[in-house]
Structures are given as structure tokens and as C-alpha cells.
Amino acid sequence: MRIVTNPSSGLMGVSIALEAAWRGARVVLVHGPLSCCSWLGWKNYLAKTVSVESTEEMLERVLEEVKEADMAFYAAAPADYKPEKREEGKIPSIAGSISLVLVPTKKIVEHAVKTNPNALHVGFTAEPLTGEKLVAKALEKLERYNLDLIAANSTVETGSGFAHETNHIYIVSRDGVLREVRAHKRVVARLLLDVAMQRYQGR
Questions:
Q1: pLDDT in the model for residue 159
Q2: How open is the CA angle 190-191-194, to the nearest 5 degrees?
Q3: Distance of CA 201 to the CA centre of its chain
Q4: What is the CATH number of the domain that holds 20?
Q5: How far apart, in whole angstroms, are the C-alpha atoms of residue 73 and residue 137?
Q6: Is 82 within the bounds of a domain?
């Protein structure tokens, strides 16, 4: 079996969920497959956890949960494309050559913002860029999806992004870069929550 995926472990999302819960928030975590940590020791801190396998499933569950949210963080790495059609069962190797046609998936963050425009929405973007180019891409996505904040990290910088315990992010608003953080993802989550709370309280 071969799959098209990314090496996201879920650590960034889990770190944000736990940091918010430790501050007294009622946290609902919608997540895909996790390889970052065991359920033991942290699941009970959260009000609710929802496990999904596909981007379509994640969209459906996020739209259900975001209706009542005061703040929403989109740290998952859902698929941007999906197969145009699904085959039931195994395709026999004697079938000869096949073509795989991919079509765009719906953008979860776009639909979530429209579902609850009154919440504070914090997006994430992972790009094969660094520095000013990464920040420019983050600003573009922040405007496109009408986000309040966006955290941008590089996929080509050592020790940042997927499959690392550390991260290097730029926290960006329409005013520009509010903070640059290079630390363990648990610390990144703490500092990101600080910025988000300041923005929420300043509304």
C-alpha cells in the first residue's frame, strides 16, 4: 500500500489544547491520527476529543464544534487534495497502468470562520519558505480566510514544522509580525495563547 500524506505528528495541536485547558478553558480537540503522544496523562484535561480520519470528516466535526467557540485554533494539516473517486477494495496489479486524479478538498478554516464569525480564529500555515517570504505568504492567507491571527512556520528550516518537537513561528496579524518564537512546541503554544488572549481581550 502507498499513501500520499505528510509527517505531521499532532504535537502542535495537542500542545495548544493542553495549554488552553490548563488556563481554565473548556477545550474540544478535533484531531486526525496522532503519533506525538499517548492518550494517557493528558486526554482527561480536555472537555472533549473527537478523532477523525479524513479531511471531510474533520470539516464536518469542526463545523459542529466551532459554533459555540470563543476561540478556534487550526493547527492540523488536513489534505489539500483527495482522489476524484474511491475504489472499493484492492486494485489488482494485472489491471495495467492507472491514473490518479486529485481534486481540491474544502478549506476547513474558510468554512469555520463563516460558521462562527464572532470567534477569534487563529490559523496556521506551513510553507517551503523562510523569513520575509514566509511572512508575506502568511499575510496573504490571513486576508484570504479572514483570520484574526496566523502562525507561520517553514517546512525547509531545520528543527521547524512537521515531525519536530521544536518549532519556529511568526505570529502574524493584519498589523504585521506580532511575535517571533523559536522553542519547543509546548512553549510555542504558551506564547501563542498569550498573544491570542491579548487580541481577544482587546476586542
A1: 86
A2: 95
A3: 23
A4: 3.40.50.10300
A5: 18
A6: no
